[in-house]
Amino acid sequence: xxxxxxxxxxxxxxxxxYTFKDKPSELYxxxxxxxxxxxxxLRPIMVLMANDLFGGDIKTALKQALAIxxxxxxxxxxxxxxxxxxxxxxxxxxxxxxxxxxxILSGDALLFKAYKFFEDLEPQLFKACMxxxxxxxxxxxxxxxxxxxxxxxxxxxxxxxxRMITYKTGLLSASSFEIGALIAGAGFRxxxxxxxxxxxxxxxxxxxxxxxxxxxxxxxxGKKHAGDIFENKKTVLYLLAKENATxxxxxxxxxxxxxxxENIDKIYSVEKIFRRTKVDEKALLExxxxxxIAQHYLNRIDVPAEKKKPFVELANYLLKRQS
Length: 323
Prior knowledge:
Elements: H1 2-17, H2 25-36, H3 42-53, H4 62-83, E1 87-88, E2 91-92, H5 94-98, H6 100-116, H7 123-152, H8 158-184, H9 188-215, H10 218-221, H11 227-230, H12 236-244, H13 247-256, H14 264-276, H15 279-299, H16 305-318
Antiparallel strand pairs: 1-2
Helix pairs in contact: 1-3, 2-6, 3-4, 3-8, 4-6, 4-8, 7-8, 8-9, 9-15, 12-15, 13-14, 15-16
């Protein structure tokens, strides 16, 4: 998509401009490492897209877009440490290269650098954006803790799962759009509508992530195959399988999900239950449902339909990743 390429180029040039040259290098080099392997940099692009949608000058939102990118990478560094993940975007994770201590510190430093990028905003706008940004960060931590709790929690409901992925994933997309809208001067109603569009696209995106963990093309996906099964994560696939499994299959799932082991039998057995209960098809229906809710909120925004087309294209692009 041409519009995505253009935004990516803008973000890439800004990241190049703000490459960390500070000392000590042991702190800043890992920060440059993860930022330079930034994937598609969708969240800063969301800031710029929303700013454009409401008639803003994206140059005025560029620092805040980078703030979102730095914050996002801070969460990834710490996430990878907690998950003991060896790969991120098909590259070795920071803690495997530099150690856990360097990972924690460089992640923390990225967070503070993110906050500094809001300092140029006018006082009222600064306050509004900080309220969104800080609240999102807090709820993201809550979502991460729920995710950790679920690994050992016996009964996790589907609503528990949706709350967790909303906090952990959906809200960062939502807030990226809202911050871009606020900087452009959007009204409260429109800013909330684009927030809710982002939230449901984010939820659908995370369900797709869970789906791809097992059913995706791993070479394209860039993560360890079935890592969520290994980690005993109660993903949408697990919850849908429990709901549709036989009694014997439920007992088998319970057996494997109390053991954190790389035993190939675990992966094989759980995947077999997933396939028999058709959780792949059911997960794709959930993705479609949340995409439709997102489009409903987009339709409520009072701007010409032509200006909304990139948002429809972005949602479709995110939800049709390689499988």
